[in-house]
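Before relying on records like the one below, remember that each one covers exactly one chain. Contacts with other chains, cofactors or solvent are not represented anywhere in the record.
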Amino acid sequence: MDTSEETDIQPAALTTPVLPGANPPLWTVNFILICLSTIATFFAFHSTIPTLPIYIQQFGGGTGMAGLALGSLTLAAVLIRPVTGWALDNYGRKLIYLGGLFIFLFATIIYIWMIPVVLLIVLRFVQGIGWGILNTASTTIASDIVPANRMGEGIGFFSLTASISLAVAPGISLWIIDSFSFPVLFITCSVLTLVAMLLALPIRYPPAEKRTERLRFAIIEKSALQPAIVILAFTFTYSSVLSFLPLFALEQGLLSSGIFFTAIALTTLITRPLSGLIVDRRGRGGYNLIMLSGILATLIAIPILSQTATAAHLIAGGIFYGIGFGFLQPTMLALCINRAEPTKRGGANATYWTGFDTGLAGGSIVWGLVAVAYGYSAMLNLTVIPIILAAIIYFFPLKKPSFS
């Protein structure tokens, strides 16, 4: 494919002046294509989260090996994201995004041959490299395409790709392995990733900035550090329900916690775009309002879930957690992007997603130890601590940040 297409357009924030009263279009062909490409990869990604642990246990792996399926992917993504951000800012978006998709696709195709468990864990690490690259790149591409004065709204809608996938993909993937087989699932995920690549090809990508010298490699983009730490603290808490709420629900005599995750997914379909509209229209006051609402909603959800005894607890907890997650996640991502120079968006996105992944991985480990020592209910109650820390870091920073 001719890479000269990458010079067709400039990032919106660099070349699209916003006239007074003007409202540039959000739903352009490029924005629709990157959203569709991203949702296809999220479907493939979310399809493997609940099914690979089952694969591992059915084919000779223990519970510890099952945990490695997510852990190895997350570790690889965290390691590759800073390099990806630096490369995106120095060399452009197209080949890096397509390269990440190819690596993710390569590992998925190999799964079709029902490989031994140990090899699957190794390939899961390879797939994590692809995921870290494509996920960082797709968010950066979306932030280039979205008009500067509609960044919050655009990122809110773009983030729906994850919500829609999370609401649908796990259930469909479990149905596939129950009704057909694991090879059929892996073929489906491979096709989805291939579709994502085909959708990515016609996107008009921003060019790599022509520089007299390259940006220095940095693990962290400083302008994005505060919102990245906030999202790390939030996902540190969120990992507790992802990893252990299903086990707690079973302990309480409930057949499944699936209704909780459905409630989260449906709630975020409303809250993600709403949060973007508010921050675009109200600026700093909008960010503060969304943060306060999201933190309070999460603090309400936690004690409800810690006392889970009925499906009503799971539904109510899911709704409030959905408000918290739907407000905080895209808002902190938009803040990372808005604070960064347009030529450093790759690094800002990498910093954000590194914080996101680190919180999920670290929280899963820590809360597992706490649950063993004190039980699931006490563990869930203790997850208010990172949320309070997130509020302090956001509302009382050591250095007054910009809300441009």
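The chain has two domains: 26-209, 218-404.
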